[in-house]
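User: Please predict the structure of the protein below. I'd like the answer in structure-token form so I can feed it into my own downstream comparison script.

Assistant: Understood. Taking the following sequence of 217 residues as input:
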Amino acid sequence: MNRVAVILVAGALVASVACGKSDAEKQAEETAANLEKAGEALSKAAEGNGSAEDLAAGMKALTDAMNGDGKTVDPVSFQSLEALLPSLSGWERGTPNSERMTSPVTYSQTEASYTKGDASLTVTITDSGFAQAVLAPFSMMASMGISRESRDGYEKGVTLNGQPGFEEWRNENRDGELTMLVGKRFLVAVKGNQLPGPGTLQEAARAIDFGKLAALK
């Protein structure tokens, strides 16, 4: 997946303090904390405001986050994810492309393409199984807290149905990407080209039942 998947808003993971968390959920939060530290240190280094020690600390935090402690859960079947792919009014959906893997990386995923005239959308639903190799790249970007707007478009954090995410939009080609983290475990990514407007991305994401997705076991 590309940079859109910047969704894993690390702050949302760190802020979750509900009782009864599973070991996998606790590990996800620890990973988010390490990624936040790494993001701050590496951002300073990139801007020339950090020392060599800051850079070293950032790299160590990033390594710790990527390694995790190996606590994962089995991902759900890709058929369960396919059942949640949305039907979008006026759009023609292609045949889903799906897979499930438990080694060396734990995840299952389904992806479908949608077309409507010259416009196209791709919707991807991924169960990370709390595998940090899947979550860490997105959390790393989210931890940097990017929020930017110009005549060309924007990049910003968003919240849909109570779930954190990240959205990008480019005006010239009317294309963009939206990635959401659902239940601290599932990734929903929507990518589109030649769209009527940025609202199309969120409309497609909202068509997915986040409640049913988060409840999958």
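That's the full token string. Helices lie at 10-15, 23-47, 52-67, 78-82, 132-142, 199-206, 210-215.
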